[in-house]
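Lab notebook: predicted structure, single chain.

Context: the supervisor wants predicted structures on file for every construct in the current expression panel, including those that have not yet been purified. This is the next one on the list. No modifications to the sequence; it matches the entry in the shared construct table.
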Amino acid sequence: MTALDVEAPSGKGRHDENFPVGSWLIRRDLRAHVHAFYRFARNADDIADSPTLAAADKLRRLDRMAAILDGASGGDSPAAAAMRASLRASGVTAQHCYDVLRAFRQDAVKLRYRDWDDLMEYCRYSAAPVGRQLLDLHGESRDTWPPSDALCAALQVLNHLQDCAADYAALDRVYLPLAEFDAAGGTLEALSASTASPALRQVLDRLLDRTEGLIATARDLPPRVAARGLRCESAVIVGLAARLARRLRRGDPLAGRVKLAKTDFAAAFVTGILARQRR
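Prediction complete. Output recorded below exactly as produced.
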């Protein structure tokens, strides 16, 4: 077997994300572990999102990544092998890795979400483990988990809103809850249009309302974080989430990708530097 037998790289990397991944704000000795976790999650995500792989093949590959975490030879998935080495060196639980694999297995077979609670249950496994992994690496208290979970869920939903048209076109996958379409009197076919219909705009705005509630909860994260660099980075990410929500409120993700500008990153960074001094 070769690496290509398991991994299905999309070409995306940490520089394509809406938030910094293991930036210089993170302790130097921990950055390699942050990058290992990102690479592991990125490769698993790419498998689940591949438009050319059958669901059964996706599950096989994701199961193989889990087996490598558990000790199997990892030549056919370098990302999983590197993650196993990182876990051994850092002493962090493998549970966060298992949780994201659970989410990506779900992505392989589940195409629709009933309501907000259904979507939040998905985010519990697809998004929350990312923040928890970072907090555990720094030895932070578990009382940081609730606002971190809220922040990670907010970032996940914002990404779903950004990519709603592409997910529907490429994978027939819709994260936007069906209950929201019913409430707005809209249909999923609206995602195929070149611009958002009034009903779809209502769906987007209702989801942004809920997401802004998550961001409000997430604002309690930086003051709870002991590590100064991580406190700064978490404040930056909270700021970026709020800015992206505002851009999605004004923009149309069907007309073109709504994304952050360099000025957003600069402003959020300044906010993060100020937060670094406060706890």
